Amino acid sequence: MTIADTIQTLFLELHQHPELSNHEFETTKRIREYLQKAGIRILELGAKTGVIAEVGSGSPVVALRADIDALPIEEQAACSYRSQNSQVMHACGHDVHTSILMGAAYLLKAQEQEQNLPGTVRFLFQPAEENFSGALELIEVGALDGVDVVLGLHNNPNLTVNQMTSCAGPFSANVDRIEITITGVGAHAAKPETGVDPIVIGAQIVTAIQTIVSRTLAGLEPAVVSITKFLSGNTWNVIPETVEMEGTVRTLTPEVRAKVKAQLTNIVENIASAMGGKGELRWFDGPPSVINVPEWVDLAKTVAQQVGYEVVDIEPQLGGEDFAHYLHHVPGAFLNIGSQSEYALHHPKFQINRDMIMPAANYWYELAQQVLTVLKNNQS
Ligand code: NI
């Protein structure tokens, strides 16, 4: 079987047997089998799921990362290889990322045998991207030890299969979650003067929060603050005691992130206290934004053009990507390759164009070697 056929088969198998974050046990087994079949060495670092493998030897070391987990979605795509696991679907294309990385591993293994590799290529088959825990877990077990540059890719349904994109600086958002509790004093609905109405306070706070982006940030600093849950009360004639809210904050830089957090705290605490109640904000840090290093973005774009991709420009996205954690330790770049799906990522009808798989594997293979060459030349 050719490498192209092998990774198409792997893609179909993965797509039909998706597994949720931290439960990628069969997926892990399958990845190991494919690696072993090609004689690629697996590093036993003790991750619960996911696989780390290598070809080549010595320094420099470049790491290529693919995420392997799926989402809790019932698939509705019109394809013959639909998910066989109920309520689980590869709706973000991590199955194709895994297949692309496997293809690159096979191609690079051949280079190793020819003794053509100027260093080591490490493959990070990372679990649990969707709940943003997998990158941290792999870093914890030492997956980045000795790594000089790390590269990652995600498919982009809005691009055609021959398009790639990336940009220097922020490429995805800081994805933080917030919870707000407003505590008032319950009362009879006919006697509001005897209590403190948390719903009225909450409503003021929701409205005031919308001034953070429009009034405290500069016009060209992108940010989103969304309240997505507002729960209170349980009947028509009682003023309740509390309001519980949830929401998310998306920003691109650490400075804007800190500014939004400070202003959010101000608004919640001070509006509540001005109205006689108590406001509490709880902030949960999600993955930081992916900050791409210009040198590696430039090389990724150059190599993309060399292997036949059209390089296009897009704006940074306010979605999250836990690849950001790697970039806090090691320089590198994250990029997108077109998957040409009619439906968006995380949609139950999401379906990639399978023509993207082999060219992307070939691109990854080419890029890894050129990164090693650049690093090698820097060493000497
Ligand atoms: Ni994804």
Q: How far from one another are the termini?
A: 40 Å
Largest sheet: 8 strands, mixed
Radius of gyration, taken over Cα atoms and rounded to an integer in Å? 24 Å
Order of helices and strands: HHEEEHEHEEEEEHEEEHEEHEHEH
Bound molecules: nickel (II) ion
| Helical coverage, percent range | 25-40%
The shape is elongated
Number of strands: 16
Estimate the mean pLDDT confidence.
Answer: 96
Largest sheet strand order: 1-2-4-3-5-16-6-15
SS-based class: alpha/beta
**If helices are DSSP runs of H or I spanning 4 or more residues, what is the number of helices?**
9
Strand content: 15-25%
Polypeptide structure, described:
The chain has 380 residues and is α/β, with parallel strands linked by helices. Helices cover 35% and strands 23% of the residues. It is built from 9 helices and 16 strands. It has helices spanning 3-16, 25-37, 94-113, 134-140, 198-216, 254-274, 294-306, 324-327, 357-379; strands at residues 41-43, 51-56, 61-67, 120-126, 149-156, 163-165, 169-170, 174-183, 187-188, 223-232, 238-239, 242-251, 278-284, 291-292, 310-312, 332-338. The protein has an 8-stranded mixed sheet, with helices on both faces. Strands 10-12-8-13 form a 4-stranded antiparallel sheet, covered by helices on one side. Strand 3 (61-67), helix 3 (94-113) and strand 4 (120-126) form a beta-alpha-beta unit. Helix 1 runs antiparallel to helix 3, helix 5 runs antiparallel to helix 6 and helix 7 packs across helix 9. The protein is elongated and about 85 Å long. The two termini are 40 Å apart. Residues 92, 94, 129, 154 line the site of nickel (II) ion.
